[in-house]
Design a protein that fits this description.
With 281 residues, this protein is an alpha+beta fold. The chain folds into two domains: 134 residues, Aminopeptidase (3-Layer(aba) Sandwich); 125 residues, Gcn5-related N-acetyltransferase (GNAT) (Aminopeptidase, 3-Layer(aba) Sandwich). It has eight helices and eleven strands. Strands 1-2-3-4-11-5-10-9-8-7-6 form an eleven-stranded mixed β-sheet. The longest helix has 15 residues. It is globular and about 60 Å long.
């Protein structure tokens, strides 16, 4: 596929996810933002199945380093009604594997809803296995249960410092939300920081249009001092959609999950991260 296929990709995406458990409807503008910036799609590594001129199956992918290996991240797999049950997911992965190997990709990564048994079976048939369980949390009533401490100064910054943020130890993010991937979408996000003199002690990256928290971290020596709460309160004030959300926190990260629940976030969905190793290295 190529950039010229974006219109058809959008139409097929909407059709393929028309009966999905989560509302995936989005405008052409929002779809292009997700594909070109959030995903940073690699068209050459994103296979599609066509029936005549109609796109009936697709895998949208990007590549980046993940867990110490060069990986291909699946940002959306879909097959439109009428073409289900034909094994197209496995066939697309078989088709694109030589190109992935040529690009140096060591493994493929994706997420799938825990309840989506049909998709899980299709991915297992394609060689994937479950690796992690992610929690997705949402501030459903749009109200925070705590207020920020006035002594914590939060500033909005224009220039990010990815290398400096990495020193705080980010939440164990999914591949799409790790810092080396988020950089492609930063023009569409807001960055908040708090510092002690010049030393960074906390930051947040979030999307103001939908209240989606992408990254949140506080220096280990400054935790339990109201800094995380202050960052979330400022993001809540700046967000258009007050029903904020944070996706794909690994279940073992009980500390951050408990912190968010005390602020009023509720567990919403669970996803499996599934991986397929392409090489033995």
């Amino acid at each position: 596929m190529s950039k010229e296929d974006l219109g058809q990709m959008h139409r097929s995406f909407i059709e393929a996810f028309s009966k999905y458990q989560v509302n995936m409807k989005m405008t052409r503008e929002a779809f292009e933002d997700r594909m070109l910036f959030k995903l940073n799609i690699n068209f050459d590594l994103s296979p599609g199945v066509f029936s005549g001129d109609k796109l009936v199956g697709f895998i949208f992918q990007t590549t980046n380093e993940y867990e110490g290996q060069w990986a291909a991240y699946n940002g959306g797999t879909g097959v439109i009604p009428g073409y289900l049950g034909l094994g197209l997911t496995s066939k697309m992965y078989d088709y694109i594997k030589p190109a992935l190997l040529e690009e140096g990709v060591k493994k493929c990564v994706l997420e799938v809803l825990v309840e989506n048994e049909v998709a899980i079976k299709a991915y297992e048939k394609a060689g994937f296995g479950k690796v992690k369980t992610f929690q997705c949390l949402m501030l459903k009533d749009a109200r925070l249960k705590r207020e920020a401490r006035s002594s914590v100064e939060i500033k909005t910054v224009r220039a990010s410092s990815i290398e400096e943020y990495q020193t705080l130890g980010e939440i164990q993010s999914s591949m799409l939300d790790q810092l080396n991937q988020v950089k492609y979408h930063l023009p569409h996000e807001i960055i908040l920081e708090t510092r002690n003199n010049r030393m960074l002690i906390g930051y947040m990256i979030f999307q103001p249009r939908n209240g989606r928290i992408t990254q949140l971290a506080v220096h280990p020596a400054h935790r339990k001092q109201g800094i995380g709460t202050a960052l979330i309160c400022r993001a809540h004030a700046l967000s258009v959609n007050k029903k904020m959300s944070i996706l794909n926190i690994e279940s073992k990260e009980t500390g951050i999950i408990s912190f968010l629940e005390k602020l009023g976030f509720n567990r919403d969905l669970q996803q499996f991260e599934m991986q397929k190793q392409l090489t033995n290295v």
